[in-house]
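does this look right to u?? (S)-3-Hydroxyhexanoyl-CoA version
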Amino acid sequence: MTLSSAPETAAVQHELRGGVLVVTIDHAPVNAINAGVRRGLIDAIDAADANASARAVLIVGAGRGFIAGADIREFGKPPVPPSLPDVCNRIEACGKPVIAAIHGAALGGGLEIALASHYRIAVEGAKLGLPEVLLGLLPGAGGTQRSARLIGAQAALSLMLSGRHVGAQEALRLGLVDRVGQSDDVVAEGLAFAHELIATQAAPRRTKNARGLADKDASTAAIAAARAETQKKSRGLLSPLKIVDCVEAALNLPFDEGLRFERERFLECRESPQRAGLVHAFFAEREVQKSPETRDAKPREIRSVGVVGGGTMGAGIAVALLDAGLAVTMIERDDASLERGRAHIENVYDALIGKGRITQEAKARALQRFDGATRYDALADADVVIEAVFEDMAVKKAVFAELDRVCKPGAVLATNTSYLDIDEIAASISRPQDVLGLHFFSPANIMKLLEVVVPARVAADVVATGFELAKKLKKVAVRAGVCDGFIGNRMLAVYRAAADHLMEDGASPYQIDQAVRDFGFPMGPYQVIDLAGGDIGWAARKRRAATRDPNARYVRVGDELCERGWFGQKTGRGFYRYEDGARIGKPDAEVEAIIDAERARAGVTPRTFSDDEIVRRYMAAMINEGANIVHEGVAQRPLDVDATLMHGFGFPRHRGGPMHYADTIGLANVLADIRAFAKEDPLFWRASPLIVDLVERGKNFASLNRTS
Ligand code: 3H9
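got this back:
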């Protein structure tokens, strides 16, 4: 084996095997392309061209996949030559046939290397894709030019605009690969292909000359359709429209000019805050899975799970568990309630069948794993039990007393409470070490966020089990400490209050919603209240009334609406009017009159706010509470707050979460805003000690994100 002597190229090795130069990319864990890999690939191709005994080149990945793409940790750092486009061009220019043999992930720059190769073979289990759009980028190493030429404008656009992965068979159908190997031995399959090419004296076949765009009219139509669709859907994202422009360039410009066009667009994307936000989101999602407990302890076994309570939440949790292939036993207090619980579950599946997302058979298979009981003894063998009953401490304690009585030793006992003190629940039974919070978000089978709430006395392996369960459910688990509302709902209470203050001070709820949507949230706060039901927040406000600071500002508009029975969509009226069951509400003059009356009652002279002012206050409130949550250790790091808001509360992903966003606008600016707002309401706007400290030390939130 010829191992390159320079240490930075050790990630690529090459050896001659029977006339084929086998080039292996070996850069664990996913063969991401960094400077060493780029250099190593150029060296390998140079070696192939220089060696008369090498009659073909085979590129393969070591370990579990081909190449996952450019090393996204390099973005934002000074570029180190050679660039990936240069590497791809060098591969394409090779005088010997170059074959890419693909197993596992061939994504982004990884697929671009395969596209620049002359022949491609994939084995089963391969995942091919150009997911750059999900990171705010576009394929920047010839991917837009070569994919369109190879598989046509429509298929290439569909791949690049969705970022989806395709398997080996679909890749074959699309023309992305020439063949699918018979076995999963990627090197053997690649070598066999190479020898066939050598035997038939096949020449290098360069993708830049492929004819996928030959039908100009069809290509033009596909580009126009993609542009129209993207304009409608891309919601302020930069890279999707640029991808369409690049494919248009592929159609209209010579290859080299198309490459230059693509490179310019790629660099614009790479330098954009959207790319930084999306890459931060990518790493935050992976980093949150790591907690001291997951590092130090092994999860307990999870095969069967009990769910106590068959309401909306319990049923949603049961569906999430069933979908993960787990056996579920639901406990309800009597047969009628159990029947309702089962009906809730069936309704969730029926709605999915109605939308064509699953089949009747899939529903039947899931329900085979479901069982219901009215006696807790049915949970004797459960590995994990999740309690999802009414939010009342006495009711929860009664459930936990039963679980303590019937569950086997070592069973993990979880509560889905949204705000109750889990330490108190744990202390009420004989095994506090087995108790933790698993806080799902509604609809529990859809929402990605799971707060793993860690009470003081819980055992580390119980926390690790919470994270393991989240992995099985394909959820983003975030570790949170015990406090009222944990991470997400605690922040929600504060930024909603900021919105209410804005409303009472003069902004209409409709303007606030619009400004928040324009920022990138799918819905504004008042639309969310109408969707979830105004009565939920109303009940929480009543519960907190006794402990509320009498000097704190309290806006009564929401209570006024609820007193009229206007709970939102489900009652046809809330902040908006929903005529004839409409799901999109219309502004309501009567609501505006109620707000006017409340302003008068509170002695407020309404003033106007620009959309920018609205967003600044809304975000400052969110960021400040996020900082408090990190400061108190309820969240481990700012990135945990970011992941929570992105996956549970619709925070726009391309902005990377509130803490990342705060860094992009500058923490000193956020602090200046908070101090300015505090002149009107010093009780509400108290700058978090963490922000003050970071600003004094010239640091940002990112400096607290200990990432691996
Ligand atoms: C691009 O290619 C641009 C080019 O067009 C143009 C250039 C000019 N870089 O997800 P996992 C890490 S843009 C660096 O847990 P899985 C990841 O952080 C790129 N690191 O495993 C994690 O680290 P840690 C286009 C990366 O099996 C570890 O690898 N490509 C990269 O669930 C394991 O990852 C993409 O967008 C990377 N590119 O999933 C693909 N990828 O262990 C992004 C992963 O320290 N990657 N890491 O936490 C993926 O979709 C998944 O990681 C993959 C594996 C499917 C590959």
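The first strand starts at residue 12 and ends at 17. idk if thats expected tbh
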